[in-house]
Amino acid sequence: MSRTPTDECHTPRAGVCACTGSRTRSCTLAWLALLALSAAGWKLGGLSPTPALVAIALAATLLKAQILIDHYMGLRHAGWRWRALLAGWLLLVAAVVGSPLLIH
């Protein structure tokens, strides 16, 4: 009986994430970083917006997106073109979202 990619995805190995193949410790640290960044964003959301807070929130969002791309989409070891494409997309989105908020 041959195995399909979905079979492999649901067959975890000790110390390795089932779908991405990353080390479990790395995935746990990524999850904790996402949790901390989300909590910080929630806390910042309760403050009155200033350009500095907007910049911090956008930076935290970019960092969260990069963690998701690297650890959960499994693109940490992808070719530089894929990484550059996604990094460019993140910067474009941040510029489109952030520029109206930072300009008064």
Account of the protein in words:
With 104 residues, the chain is mainly α. It has a domain at 32-102. The protein has 4 helices and no strands. The protein is flat. Residues 3-8 have low confidence and may be disordered.
How would you concisely characterize the structure shown here?
The chain is mainly α.
Quick one: biggest sheet? Answer: none
Q: Percent of residues in beta strands? A: under 5%
Shape verdict: flat
Strand tally: 0
The mean pLDDT is 78
Walk me through the topology.
Elements: H1 5-9, H2 24-45, H3 51-72, H4 80-102
Defining key terms:
104 residues, disordered N terminus, mainly alpha, single chain, 0% strand
